[in-house]
Predict the 3D structure of the following.
Amino acid sequence: MISLTRLSGTSFLLNADLIERVDSTPDTVVTLVDGTKYVVSEGPDVVLAEVVDYRARIVARAPLFEHGPLGPGGTGAGSHLSAVPSTAVPTTAGRRASSQRNRGGDS
């Protein structure tokens, strides 16, 4: 959430993920994805800086892998992710043949 100020001087918090655009007409108008519009006293550059800071705070708090996304040496060791061997994914032709066998005939 970012903190913005209405023209009346009251502050409010806005979900930055819902912002579609920010216009300067000459007042700053923040339009949300659902069409709701807010006229705020901050300029577009300040709104942008607030959104960037908000997203940076989220990334800064995100848990990181101990040794990067693939573990030490890029092998995947020590991470919760692992590579799936390419042989584990059947080809389209293999799926077709298997499907025909399951139906018991040639189609």
About this structure: The CA atoms of residues 101 and 107 lie 10 Å apart. Residues 2-61 form one domain.
